[in-house]
Each structure stands twice: as C-alpha cells, then as structure tokens.
Amino acid sequence: MRLTVVGCSGSIPGPHSPASCYLLEADGFRLVVDMGSGALGALQRYTGLAGVDAVALSHLHADHFIDMCSFWVARTYSPQGVLRVPVYGPADTAARIARANDDPDVAGTFEFVTLVPGCHQIGPFTVTAGHVAHPVETFAFRFEHGGQVVTYSGDTGESAVLVELARSADILLCEAGFPELPDLPPGLHLTARQAGQHAAAAGARLLVLTHLDADYDPAASLAGAGDAFGGPVSLAAPGQVLHLD
Ligand SMILES: [Zn+2]
Fold first, then answer.
1. Is this prediction's pTM over 0.70?
2. CA 155 / ligand 1 centre spacing (Å)
C-alpha cells in the first residue's frame, strides 16, 4: 500500500497545499480519498485523472469534496469519452454534487455507492467505514491491504468509533483541526493532543497529523500530540509519500 498526501490544509486550501485529498494505491489500483478545494490540480502530479479507479468521500463539506465538480468534467469530457468511476460517499452525495455542478446528470459518469457503517470492498482494499463526530454525516475509514492498515479520521471531534477503526493501525492519519484552546465546541474537530490520545487508545504505530491550519504553530501540534501519544508523530505535507509493506 502506498499513501500520498495530495492536500492536507485545514478547512480551506492554503498557499502551499490544497484542502484534504489523499491517494491510496495498491496492486495498481488508485483510490482517491476526499477531493477538497484545490485538490484536482495537485492530484495530477501523482496520477492522470483517467487513471483514478475509485473515489471515497468522508463527508460533504467543501474542503473534502468540492473538486468532484471538476473531476466530473474531466471524466465526462475526456478524449476517450465518458470514463465512469465509482464514488463512495454519504447518502446525499449524488444530489450534492449535482447541485454544486448545476447538472442533474452526474450519475452518467459517477457510479454512486452510498456508504453505511461497516465493511466495503473497494478494488483491492477492505474498507471499514464508521460514523464519527461532526455536524454532518461523516465517515472515518480503515483501509486494509496485504496485512497493512491505514486509518483516516475524516473530520471528527472525540470519537470512540475512530479509536476502534484505528486499532493497531500502521498509520493513523488524523485530523488536528483545532488549536489547544479552552472551551472548544464538541463534535467538530480534534486538537493535536486529542489526536495523540486517540492514537494511544488505539495502539496505532504512527500518527500523522493532518487538516492543519496554517495559522497554528506546527511545533506545538507535534509536541501536544507526541506528549499524549508517546509514539512517533509527524505532520502531513503535500507530496509526502508513505510506503507500507
Ligand atoms: Zn468537515
């Protein structure tokens, strides 16, 4: 399995990174996980758009899905004609992309599969999805292939489901969208320290912090997460490639 960070900027695209987008590859299969604002251009550094085999969307906030509009254009009007592609997402995904695109016919290109909590087979990946704590329906994902495990938090506040999905994971790619401040609203984002607590509770091997706000001090995020986790922590960076084998 190979994980490429296409974009890891929190909430909005930043000057050096798109919003959330990750490319997960195994056995020649390319799965894009989230397609946030600014992601589609950067994604082409790592794969041609005709080479994407499936997309999985954690939720339908713009910083996680809005570039699906441009991806629809690319796959509908490609030189090879319409290139259909499966899109796994929350219940409202088809309607939401159609509205954003102002075209009701997006299902001609996208084969929508509604995610429910539990197990899904996407290409060579066994994917376990679970609802996490965010204001809209949001999934975290546990991706398994060849005995390796990558867990992605989506966007979430504190979540026992996330701990279960990250159990003994080789990599927990976890959002840390909040700074360390008092009186943060629950059910929205994690601080880096809380991400570390989730990684520790799950027994994950490596914690990678993502959904990072450019205004927060990355050294403080690393320190907070490392303190709580006690294991290795790194910050996601655009273009970063993590090999699991
Ligand atoms: Zn969100």
1. yes
2. 5
Average the pLDDT over 87-114 and give the result.
95
CB of 56 closer than 8 Å to CB of 122:
yes
Tell how far the Cα of 181 is from the centroid of ligand 1, in angstroms.
19
**How far apart are the CA of 58 and the centre of ligand 1, in A?**
9
- Please give the Cα distance from 129 to 62 (Å, whole number): 20
The pLDDT value recorded for residue 69 is 97
Residue 238 near residue 207 (C-beta atoms within 8 A): no
Question: What is the dihedral angle through the alpha carbons of 151, 152, 155, 157, rounded to the nearest 10 degrees?
Answer: 20
Amino acid found at 43: L
Spell out the domains of the chain, with CATH numbers in brackets: 2-243 (3.60.15.10)
Distance 80 CA to ligand 1 centre (A): 34
Distance from Cα 140 to the centre of ligand 1, integer Å: 12
How far from chain centre, in Å, is Cα 123?
17
Q: How far is 43 from 39, CA to CA, in rounded Å?
A: 6
Asked if the model's pLDDT at residue 245 lies above 90, the reply is no
The predicted-structure confidence for 209-218, as pLDDT tens digits, reads as follows 999 988 889 9
Distance 158 CA to ligand 1 centre (A): 14
User: Are 38 and 19 contacting, i.e. CB atoms less than 8 angstroms apart?
Assistant: yes
Structure tokens at 142: 């546990």
What DSSP state is assigned to residue 78? Answer: B
Whether 104 has a pLDDT exceeding 90, the answer reads no
